[in-house]
Here is the input.
Amino acid sequence: GQNIDQPTEMTATEGAIVQINCTYQTSGFNGLFWYQQHAGEAPTFLSYNVLDGLEEKGRFSSFLSRSKGYSYLLLKELQMKDSASYLCAVNTGFQKLVFGTGTRLLVSP
Amino acid sequence: GAGVSQSPSNKVTEKGKDVELRCDPISGHTALYWYRQRLGQGLEFLIYFQGNSAPDKSGLPSDRFSAERTGESVSTLTIQRTQQEDSAVYLCASSRTWDEQYFGPGTRLTVT
Here is the structure.
């Protein structure tokens, strides 16, 4: 079967750094995506990793270790608007994405 | 250019009725996906269309669910004899190939 695990909820303060972890066990692997989803809105793309290592994009970075079945999303200089759910999704092949249940991040002043 | 659009944005229906949800993908995107998201849950894959290939229906939860797509354009998701457990947000996404999926705003379905 397919299994993607993320923490259910995390809290952090404005200006801080937070790391959201994702572990996966899937029948295939063709890349890992991170999406941001604000309440009541559609998910929006944040990052894509297919090779091991760190991908940096502004305040957001994403890391992948294929041998460990592990990824994390790093958010720096947190802002209130970063309060959202963060979804980890694995492309298991043939363009099928399997999503985790998401991590709800609450940023406080 | 325009993003993925879905209609209706909200649908309230009585148990046992049929509903049809519509998705207009981004022009030129060959792949189209339907997902279901129950309250507080992650996205659940339903069905995937790629060009003129046979769709991947492996995520459809029952034979009450079906979807069609004409070429690389509009898709409709039909739920027959709706049940209360069908209440959810139905999200459509499209992509060019294997990369980033662009999501529509979703249709919130409530079955009473």
